Amino acid sequence: MSAMTGHIVVDNHKVDVTVKNGTIGPSVIDIAKLYGQTGMFTYDPGFTSTASCESKITFIDGDEGVLLYRGYPIEQLAEHGDFLETCYLLLYGELPTAAQKADFDYRVTRHTMVHEQMARFYQGFRRDAHPMAVMVAAVGAMSAFYHDSTDISDPTQRMIASMRMIAKMPTLAAMAYKYSVGQPFVYPLNSLDYSSNFLRMCYAVPAEEYKVNPVMARALDRIFILHADHEQNASTSTVRLAGSSGANPFACIAAGIACLWGPAHGGANEAALKMLQEIGHVDNIPRYIAKAKDKNDPFRLMGFGHRVYKNYDPRAKIMQKTCHEVLTELGIKDDPLLDVALELERIALSDSYFIEKKLYPNIDFYSGITLKAMGFPTSMFTVLFALARTVGWIAQWKEMIEDPSQKIGRPRQLYTGAVQRDYAPIGKRR
Ligand code: CMC
Q1: Predicted confidence (pLDDT) at residue 335 exceeds the cutoff of 80
Q2: CA–CA gap between residue 407 and residue 245 (Å, rounded)
Q3: Which residue among 275, 307, 365 has the greatest number of ligand 1 atoms within 8 angstroms of its CB, and so is best to mutate?
Q4: Ligand 1 centroid vs 173 CA: distance in angstroms?
């Protein structure tokens, strides 16, 4: 990282600042001395102009529609690699050799089972509990089951906790699904690859033999690769902030899952599909487009727009291709939802409102349709996102813990409440 010093003038105060340059992407102004020299904070709700950390993991160029994991374009990773290779890359910084990959796969596979008492923990939920509620609880509860990997100062424990979460997340997610449909849990089968094993844990039943469809497994694996990391988004920042206090990694990832649940973030794929269902028919699209444009209507086209991508989301392009592969494999041609989705996409890409505001379809627009075709209920969509994003959260959490300059995250505020006043006894209040 190169840096140069300079100064900015704020309200007649000259403030010394350092401009730090990354390898690619915008430089940052280090304003750590601002408060000391001016008594003022910066104000940036939503952090639209604020870099919260230095990171070597993921790079996004939102204007150009570029996404790199450790320097590798997402398109190349999704085309040529598998999800566990991406996990290795995100965690260790380099693509594995064949021997490293075999060892990593083996280590993940050895951790796929969960403590048997976790099953009883699941029984405590109502059958109709949202699987994201179950996941927040189950992942948080892992810290109560795996005491030997919660000491964050021990690198070995950090790595064991990381492997455990990557390995067990599919098992926990499949259990959440099985519980919601009233079927018995299916144990992992370690001879299968990561995504095939997950499909089997979701869809196999003891009464029948289950054969994994390789097209579905490959599509799911690609969905996992596309969702694996996305630099300092809301849930990742939540994981970093939770971790900055020294909280154990299971608790931090549970915090990330809670944040991901929101419809403006990971919940958007569920919201996008619900919206397509609500629109129902291509004839209704103009009414919904008008609602989306109406400033007085809170309705937004779910699955469109992105805080960072002001160009086509590169993940959406791959997702669109994967979506068509899955639909072709399953022989789905005349799906009314698909008709609505394609027409909506066509209109949004040609309508001046969407063009001027750079609102392109995002990954959630296509992932919802794909996951539905694969048989997942909408309530599971965000769970699959959480499963895939776990490795990104862990890589970012580890990077933060291993950074010697790491401090507890503690933003400041612009206070606009009451000034100091005296307490009045209850009988004397008006
Ligand atoms: N439909 C209609 N108008 C929109 C939409 C939309 N989906 N998204 C943004 N706009 C408008 C918005 O009303 C605003 O208009 P104006 O400038 O006239 O006030 C303008 O575009 C800019 O919007 P913004 O809210 O300032 O942009 P943002 O960067 O804060 O929001 C977003 C990004 C993703 C929250 C937003 O685009 C959105 O709510 N999209 C729908 C939800 C969605 O699909 N989320 C998934 C994001 S991708 C998955 C992930 O990374 O988690």
Answers
A1: no
A2: 8
A3: 307
A4: 29
